[in-house]
């Protein structure tokens, strides 16, 4: 569970992701503290970031800045693909990725597979604004189950885009960073298909981006990353790693991105813009050097 302390300034919850560096939130009210079959889950009301979800002591999402992560994890791959109709989401139990995927009117089917039903239940109860009406969209199929097993059994070429919103490669999220998973992901993607997942904050987790990219390169001709600045993922830029069968994934120019966003009906975003989209692929050297040559 996350570390909790009480002082003269109130009750504080400290994130436990790193042993030597971290952040803490002053708790307005604890809303839920559950030990599921897979992980420890805490939801609390903070005085600075609205409601916050922690899994095994690590911040997953806050109401204040969720739009940064959700928009970049979703809009970048879908707009970069340009014609995605079938999308697979693994994890993302808060429903925010599902909501953003379904904002794309070009998407015909969105399958979401979340292993921990308690994450879905608690998110729907305590953080409903993150998912909006996504749960009730007829294009959505929500499965409480093992994403690894789903990918193994899915038909060849059945998805255009796979979005993995998981914890770091420890505990319940570890199997989503294996050779077996990426091999099956490549198999079930279409000829222009691509997969995106979070690869950590490289200032603190450079090995995560490096090792994930090397693994995926065994099954995809092009791997890389783009960045997003999410305030509650401490350490600077977060990397969103991608692997694609289409070498032109990052090559869409600004006018093309604008046209695709208009066709998809994407507007009123708070972080993603066509300009941010294009710029996010230009990596600082300390990040770029973690990618295979």
From TrEMBL:
Entry keyword annotation includes rRNA-binding: no
Organism: Granulibacter bethesdensis (strain ATCC BAA-1260 / CGDNIH1)
Gene Ontology CC terms: cytosol
Protein purpose: Catalyzes the irreversible transfer of a propylamine group from the amino donor S-adenosylmethioninamine (decarboxy-AdoMet) to putrescine (1,4-diaminobutane) to yield spermidine.
SUBUNIT field: Homodimer or homotetramer.
Pfam families in the cross-refs: Spermine_synt_N (PF17284), Spermine_synth (PF01564)
Record-level Gene Ontology MF annotations: spermidine synthase activity
Taxonomic lineage of the native organism: Bacteria, Pseudomonadati, Pseudomonadota, Alphaproteobacteria, Acetobacterales
Keyword terms of this UniProt record: Polyamine biosynthesis, Spermidine biosynthesis, Transferase
Residues binding S-methyl-5'-thioadenosine: 39, 114, 146-147
A GO BP annotation: spermidine biosynthetic process
Domain (PABS) ranges: 10-245
Family, per entry: Belongs to the spermidine/spermine synthase family.
Annotated catalysed reactions: S-adenosyl 3-(methylsulfanyl)propylamine + putrescine = S-methyl-5'-thioadenosine + spermidine + H(+)
Pathway, per record: Amine and polyamine biosynthesis; spermidine biosynthesis; spermidine from putrescine: step 1/1
Enzyme class: transferase
Stored PROSITE patterns: PABS_2 (PS51006)
Active site: 165
Protein name per UniProt: Polyamine aminopropyltransferase
Chain residues that bind spermidine: 94, 165-168
Matching PANTHER family: SPERMIDINE SYNTHASE (PTHR11558:SF11), SPERMIDINE/SPERMINE SYNTHASE (PTHR11558)
InterPro entries, sorted: PABS (IPR030374), SAM-dependent_MTases_sf (IPR029063), Spermi_synthase (IPR001045), Spermidine_synt_N (IPR035246), Spermidine_synt_N_sf (IPR037163)
EC number: 2.5.1.16
